[in-house]
Design a protein that fits this description.
Radius of gyration: 31 Å
Distance between the termini: 39 Å
Mean pLDDT: 79
Number of helices: 4
Low-confidence stretches: none
Number of domains: 1
Shape: rod-shaped
Order of helices and strands: HHHH
Strand content: under 5%
């Protein structure tokens, strides 16, 4: 009977193979970081759009409030300017809410690449286990 000896991979071969796999993994992770950062930039641009809308609303509130002051000076005896002030305050509140929402969307915690950081932590754990 002719037995064929079982060949085992050499240690340098195993290390080279592991390094190759880790390189591929980190290239994939870098791609994931790029995609996630792209998503976060889109989120930031959207929040900036809301912030611009909020600025327009706040400008409208200022105009209405100024119209109220003019009405107050022009009208005598009647109080239509009170309605202008009420509408101006309401628009200012809506604009303030829009600003708060936009700023919350731009917070550092919302823009951080959380999925990628989590995945990199898992990859590091797997690498530690394989090195043992």
């Amino acid at each position: 009977m002719n037995e064929t000896p079982i060949t085992r991979p050499s240690t340098p071969g195993l290390l080279a193979d592991a390094l190759s796999h880790m390189t591929t993994l980190f290239e994939s992770e870098i791609g994931l970081v790029r995609r996630e950062i792209s998503e976060k930039i889109t989120q930031a641009v959207t929040s900036i759009g809301v912030l611009v809308a909020a600025a327009v609303l706040m400008l409208s509130a200022l105009i209405l409030l100024l119209q109220g002051v003019v009405e107050l000076l022009v009208q005598s005896g009647m109080r239509p300017s009170s309605a202008d002030f009420l509408v101006g305050v309401a628009i200012a509140i809506i604009g303030g809410i829009a600003v708060a929402l936009a700023l919350r969307g731009l917070s550092a915690a919302k823009l951080a690449p959380v999925r990628t950081i989590t995945q990199l932590g898992k990859d590091a754990q797997v690498l530690k286990e394989q090195v043992k």
